[in-house]
Structure formats: C-alpha cells, structure tokens
C-alpha cells in the first residue's frame, strides 16, 4: 500500500505544489494510501453560503441542484463550490483504515463519524443522490470519501439523531469561538441570529455575557425575530437587512443608545454584510466573521474607509474540542435541542 502525506498533498492533481483545499482538482480514487481512512458516505451538509448559491443558481429545482453538486465533484474530485470557495462536511461509516493509522486513531470499521474538515479538501465520489433537504442544506447520498491522517472527525453520538448531529457539527466552531470572545457585561450582536450557527451563538452569548450583558439578534425575517424573542436569549431581536449597512448601524445604535456592540458575531450565508457588522461595532470592539460569504477585502478596506478601529477575526471553523462542546449545548438546553430537532430531526 502506498505511503501518503498526512496533509493529503499526494492527492493534488492541479495545480501541483498546493494543499488539497487550495487545489482546483484532486484525485478522488477510492483505493486508499497507507495513512488514509475510507468512508461510506450517507449525507453531505453543504456549507450554508455554498448551498444558498447553488439553490439560487438552480432556481430551487432539485434536479438542477443535484446536477450542480455532482458536476462539481466530477470536475474537481471534491465538493468545492467554485463560486463561494466553500464546501461543508459529511457523515458516514468507516469502511477501511490504512495500516499506518490503525494504531493511531480511536476508530474501527463500522463506526459512524462526521468529518470536521471541509468538503473543499475531501476526496469524494457520489454514486447517487437519494434526497435533497432544501431547508436544511443537507443532501442524502450514496458515496465514498477519503479522510487524510490530519483530518478531524467526531463519532456520532447515540443520544442525538444523526441529522441533528450533522447540523450541529457543521457549525461547531461558532459557539466555541463565541465562548472565547464574549465576556461578562458585553453587548453582543449576532448577525444572522435566527439561523443554525446564529442560534448556537445567541445561546452561548447569553451565557457568557451574563445578566449585566446584552444580546442582540439580527435577521431580515420576521419569523426569525419572533423565534428569537420566544426563546428568550436575546434582549433585542432586530429585523433589518444586514446588507444595508447604514440601516443596520442605525438600528443597532437605537437599541444600544449609540454605544454599539462590544462583540459582533457574523453568521449570515450571503455576501455584503461586512460593513453592517463593522459600523455596528464600537471602536476597539471585536468582530468574528464566521460566515464563509465574508470578503476579507471588503472587511479590511471597508473598516479602513470609515475609520473604524476594530479587531476582525477570520472564522476558523475549528477550536479544540469544538465538536464535544457543541453537542454538549444540546444536552444542556432543552430549548436548543427542541429547536434543532424540529428544524433538522
């Protein structure tokens, strides 16, 4: 059996000299190298920004969505959206473990796992698409994938439905990073607070900010705002379009008496929300751009252009033990568990 790089560089076809995530095309053959794991894939959770773009391109037509996803995988060897640059993650069962990894991983053939690395770097084959869940960003498939030696994974828990665990693990980095950023007494703004990652961040922000803090959730949709109010984790649910930077700034100024947010967590799945987040954050405040729709150029030059001295953090989807942390939130909060079960169960 052939030896492979722990980072998967042996799979890169085009261009040579880059890592798999940055490659245009990778080798998605399913004969494993000695340090790889082969997975029988049952579902893909497409990154929210990517799925939104695909759905819009296909005008919501399920056959066209399937064609776009399969076409990307056939061309690139992975589910790496050429428009958004993002991927997602998958769940499945371990089918084969390379001998060089056998004594280094706590896995055995047959274990159900979720990969915690992006589909944008994961060799993937799709034999068929069984079902597409438009409102969940999930696609049930019959396929196979390869996990590199450096690839992160989590065993699927027995006490949480598979589809719910998939939804949670896809955004596990968001609440873990929120826990690091929010301090007691902070005013926290969660842009996209009614969505999947946003709901977790709102809940976590409420815990961390404490009774002296304030949590503000933003969504352009009335249903999201009503749900945020009913859950009781926000002090204010503000219905405003985050792509309208001035309107968002004015709305946040109104509910904070001009003080603005100490910490802003951006969880939206559409582009052009950078300036709304920047203008709604106080000078020397912090902004965590978890959204894969974020433009670094727009954020960096935008903040400079309006003279905003803010710390902007790229949304690293990984934090140590983030999968365990996110799953623990569901066990901790009956309301959060019910929300995710109703939405994704």
SSE topology sketch:
Blueprint: E1 12-14, E2 25-26, E3 37-46, H1 48-57, H2 62-76, E4 88-97, E5 112-115, E6 124-133, E7 138-147, E8 153-155, H3 162-170, H4 173-181, E9 187-191, H5 196-209, E10 214-219, H6 222-231, E11 236-239, H7 245-255, E12 261-266, H8 274-279, E13 281-289, H9 296-305, E14 311-314, H10 322-332, H11 334-344
Parallel strand pairs: 9-10, 9-12, 10-11, 12-13, 13-14
Antiparallel strand pairs: 1-2, 3-4, 3-7, 4-5, 5-8, 6-7
Helix pairs in contact: 3-11, 4-5, 10-11
As a percent range, the share of helical residues equals 25-40%
The number of domains: 2
What is the CATH topology descriptor of the largest domain? Rossmann fold
Structural class: alpha/beta
- In CATH terms, the superfamily of the largest domain is NAD(P)-binding Rossmann-like Domain
Low-confidence segments: none
Which strand order do you get reading across the main beta sheet?
Answer: 6-7-3-4-5-8
């Amino acid at each position: 059996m052939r030896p492979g790089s722990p980072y998967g560089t042996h799979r890169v076809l085009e261009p040579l000299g880059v890592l798999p995530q940055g490659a245009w095309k990778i080798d998605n053959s399913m004969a494993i190298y000695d340090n790889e794991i082969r997975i029988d894939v049952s579902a893909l959770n497409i990154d929210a920004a990517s799925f939104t773009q695909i759905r819009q391109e296909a005008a919501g037509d399920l056959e066209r969505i399937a064609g776009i996803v399969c076409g990307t995988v056939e061309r690139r060897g992975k589910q790496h959206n050429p428009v958004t640059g993002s991927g997602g993650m998958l769940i499945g069962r371990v089918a084969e473990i390379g001998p060089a990894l056998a004594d280094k991983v706590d896995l055995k053939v047959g274990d159900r796992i979720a990969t915690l690395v992006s589909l944008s770097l994961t060799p993937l084959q799709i034999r068929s698409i069984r079902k597409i869940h438009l409102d969940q960003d999930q696609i049930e498939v019959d396929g196979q994938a390869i996990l590199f030696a450096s690839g992160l994974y989590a065993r699927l828990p027995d006490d949480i439905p598979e589809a719910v665990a998939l939804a949670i693990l896809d955004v596990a980095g968001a609440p873990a990073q929120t826990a690091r950023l929010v301090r007691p007494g902070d005013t926290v703004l969660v842009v996209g607070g009614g969505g999947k990652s946003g709901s977790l961040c709102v809940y976590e922000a409420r815990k961390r900010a404490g009774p002296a803090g304030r949590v503000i959730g933003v969504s352009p949709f009335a249903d999201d705002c009503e749900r945020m109010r009913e859950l009781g984790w926000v002090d204010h649910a503000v219905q405003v379009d985050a792509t309208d930077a001035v309107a968002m700034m004015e709305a946040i100024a109104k509910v904070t008496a001009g003080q603005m947010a100490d910490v802003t967590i951006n969880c939206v799945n559409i582009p052009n929300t950078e300036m709304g987040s920047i203008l709604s954050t106080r000078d020397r405040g912090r902004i965590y751009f978890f959204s894969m729709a974020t433009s670094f150029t727009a954020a960096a030059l935008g903040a400079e252009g309006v003279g905003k001295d803010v710390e902007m953090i790229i949304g690293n989807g990984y934090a140590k033990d983030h999968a365990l942390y996110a799953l623990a939130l569901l066990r901790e909060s009956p309301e959060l568990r019910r929300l995710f079960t109703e939405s994704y169960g």
